Here is the input.
Amino acid sequence: MIATADQIFVLLKHWLIGFLPVGLQGVAGVLLSVVAIIAVFPTLFALAVWMERKGLARMQNRIGPNRVGPFGLLQPIADAIKSLTKEDIVPLRADTAVHFMAPVVLTVVVFMGIAVLPMGRNMTLVSMDAGLLFFFAMGASSELAVFMAGWSSRNKYSLLGAMRGVAQMISYEVPLLMSSVAVVMITGSLSLDKVVAAQNQYTWGLPHWYIFTPWGLAAFLMYATAATAETNRSPFDLPEGESELVAGYFTEYSGFKWALFFLGEYVGMLSISGLGTTLFLGGWSAPFAFLGWVPSWFWFFSKVLMSIAVFIWIRGTLPRLRQDQLMNFAWKFVIPFTLLDLLVAAIWRFMGDGWARWIVCSAILLIAYALMCGVGMYRKHFGLRRYRYAE
Amino acid sequence: MNPLAGYLLVAALLFSIGLAGALTRRNAILVLIGIELMLNAANLNLIAFWRYGPHPEALTGMMFAIFSIAVAAAEAAVGLGLVISIHRHAKTTDLDAMNRMKG
Amino acid sequence: MSFVFYLIAALTVAGGLAAILFKNTVHCALAVTVAFAGQALMFLALDAQFAGFAQILVYVGAVAILIVFAILLTRNSETPKDGVYSKNWFVGLVIAAGVFAVLGWAVLGSVRVLPGPGGAPTATPAVTVLDIGNALMGRYVLPLEIVALLLTAALIGAVIVAMHEKERAK
Here is the structure.
């Protein structure tokens, strides 16, 4: 009964393709999974949009959408109808072919990244040996779509937003990859299924999730920072800051193409949160051993939605970083720290099981962090706030 | 047709297209694009021979191609840095205009 | 040959041709990105998954963006007013055609001895990323270290070459 609830989607798929002749069953199975992903992730996108508007509103002491359905739950549908029926304006001097292809490329690339995420037991669309590498390859391709959008509009603000966006995305790609390399090193495989299987073990009822280890926590924090920068979310959203640059690289887009950019940004957030939960938060494994009866896909999606809630929380709380502060932070702090984290993960592995490795690894990481913060703050002459009054 | 011959012909075609681009275009950056196409064609040759060769488990062809990808990226970076530096000095990237040693 | 091979080959060659024929430089850069992506698909068709994903990561994710940044930093983003081909374009074309003729003659002339259907093995090699990792750290560790040094030198060199020169005081 419990196993049935856990595998219910897999069993449903096998039952549906059982109606077809044997030759077509492979293709039909893949097509059915693809249709399921294309149905589920835009629904999650709608949920994320609603969460964002209500969450930000409450953090800013207002209510948010509350007219379209109970608690404004149907607001994303109203937004969709509005985007689809708006006039599609293309600037006169814009490069029409590239202007059209940019949102298409972004959406395709972002959806392809979801193919390797293990969304439940036996629920990975394509179980590849080099799954993590495929995900990062798709993430790297999305930067080109951002550039295409900004350049083809022939608009100074769009181009500026696009250049800033691409510079930020390539700077933060290195910490994203390096923090995942620590996980790969300890697991011994690039396959995301094996990463989740390695975390699905329990000691005294507590899981072996990588976030509960010193190097894992450091890697997770850096992954979260890099993920926020990769998806151009606040506090790294200067490329699309509404008060800075009109709308950055998608200034000249309206109607359905703008909706595709919006979809691409949120589905990108969902997929990078999905990868973060797979690598650090245990994927589809339950938090405690006695909760193993709850279906695995429930854990995966709830962890992803909790990550989205944290993204929204950070957006509502922190101010925006300036472009040079952001790049300085990436190259001078995060990348050296990820390299140190790799070393600490190696020390963790070679010290074998026991309590000594916890102390040694935590000590190295905390001392290094304190040193880097101390050096950084000393050079900026931080101190107590001094108030200056006009004379 | 022999599958290996098919891949080798595509690689030869890509190589000559890259060579034509590097030899006929005026812009220095397009010459670099032609060079990248030629490197890609060579990588395709390497992987095709690795796949259809006698000992694919020795991974020689794959390793060669991976190192070649890394070196090509480094060479593209240095080449484009040079093009930017030349543009700063000569205010143009037109190769037909830069046919003197003076300047 | 399978239909998929012809499709991927057509995509790659079309991208390459477009890259050298378009007038606008940024269009050429985007077309060569299509050629890089087609090349990655060819690698995947040849069961070289690691090489295919590395090709997308490095070429599409880094080299294409580098080319595009260089085009924008050298003010080449508008369509040039004079011709885009150099004075001696015909000689270049003849040389490229000659090279293709020689290579094509060599390939077609040796079809008898190439491994293929009805000949040597075409079984899929079972290559995992673990094998590649072991090879990189075992047999190929010296090239790995040399490439690391080369990449460091290229990184520092590119930054120094493209850096703004400091104004010499007095």
Remarks:
- Residues 89 and 95 of chain C are 10 Å apart (CA to CA).
- Chain C touches chain B through 86 residues (CB under 8 Å).
- Chain C has a mean pLDDT of 87.
